[in-house]
Amino acid sequence: MKRTVAVFGAGYIGLVTGACLAELGHTVTVRDIVPERIQQLDQGDVPIYEPGLVEMIARNTERLAFTLDANEAVRDAEIVYVCVDTPPTASGDADLSRVFAVIDVLKSASHLTAVVVKSTVPVGTGARIRAALDDAGLGHVGYAANPEFTAEGKAVSDFMHPDRVVVGTWEDATAKLVAELHDGVDGPVVLMDVPSAELTKLGANAALATKISLVNELATVCEATGADITQVAAAIGLDPRIGSHFMKAGLGYGGSCFPKDSRALRALASNNGYPFQLLTSVIEVNELQTRRHVQRLKVELDGLYRKKIAVLGMTFKPGTDDMREAPSAIIAARLLAEGAEVHCWDPMAKAQAVEPWTSTTRHETPLEALGGADAAIIVTEWPELAQVSWAEAHAVMRRPLILDGRNLLDPPTMAGHGFTYMSVGRPTSTV
Ligand code: UGA
Questions:
Q1: 255 falls in which pLDDT band (50, 70, 90)?
Q2: Among 63, 68, 101, 321, which has the highest number of CB atoms less than 10 A from its own CB?
Q3: Pocket test residue of 12, 158, 257, 316 for ligand 1, highest count of atoms within 8 A of CB
Q4: What is the DSSP letter of 201?
Q5: What's the gap in Å between 209 CA and the centre of ligand 1?
Q6: In ligand 1, which atom is closest to the CA atom of 327?
Q7: Quick check: is 276 in a domain?
Q8: pLDDT of residue 259
Q9: What is the Å distance from ligand 1's center to 151 Cα?
Q10: Helix or strand or coil: residue 253?
């Protein structure tokens, strides 16, 4: 059955959720508090880059509206989706003020059938929202936790073809309603209670972050012993109990999810009197990863003071314009702190009017950024970098030194071009 849905929050998750629910045939109104964002969306302009999203929004305009007005969004809605952000507070707890601001708006919406929270929240949030709804006389309105497991850059396809749709509820009718809302989605719906659904989200991201830190630690051991992490990880990953995904060594994870969620889960455990030591190590390994590789460059160049370094790639991963918690920011800031001159390139990152970027020079092409450089560090594995004419790059650089922080390029080929080619967890190649 097709439903009428109000989605609160027009960020990455809200826009993708709204567009995908409209694609599934539901009537959706997406509400945001930022006027420019709604204006842009009304003009058919999508403020974030997500493959397939522009097209999906364009083909569902009949069923998809955008508004600044919360009451307008809720007026005809049967279901409200909460997709607002929950940034960390000073204590590391999630700031739930935006979530509860939405719940406040709903207090007179007795016509609703269910409230569904997609925002990442600590365990126990659902129970608090349930109590707030009950206090407002909305005991008949169902509640569901429906965490998202979509990755940026493939959010639309992850929504439509998920590994699982997790629906946490306290009552069967709401479970059925939210499950049915996903009719047409190609993946299993897993029903559970609300706290379990809330923890599943944090637990899934902790598991993935742990895999990345494990492979990064193994890579460091590889560097110390002459082994090659790409060969080691590929062979380890053939065991289906381990799996080959998220086994790429690099400069560590960034983005809006893993750093925030791993810290949030650690804080949740600490707040409950449990020191989550494994997660603490996962976070520490990740933080060390960027610094450790800047240090490698420093040793190789005999100091970074007044050295010209090209930083290739700024976004936290390719295929997105997202700079949140990008390793590139730490790398650029560290290089500047060592007195280096930093020249950057990225095909999608929006202009950054904050430090460290304001102290760096941005270039249109990788070759421009490489001109006169003493070294280059590949921070994001943009496919464009595999297409660079490295022979030409060798000719324009002052010193032929590359630190490939994502193991994007082929060591013998790079050595063949005359580079000293360092990477993560692989032996250094030279001519
Ligand atoms: C991540 C999860 O993959 C999603 O399942 C989850 O829904 C989402 O967080 C979320 O909580 O909202 P995302 O942050 O978009 O998605 O990006 P990923 O593709 O998972 O990459 C995260 C970081 O890990 C990137 O910086 C990437 O470079 C790094 N990474 C990933 C590695 O260093 N090695 C790998 O093998 C894989």
A1: very high
A2: 63
A3: 257
A4: H
A5: 8
A6: 26
A7: no
A8: 95
A9: 6
A10: coil
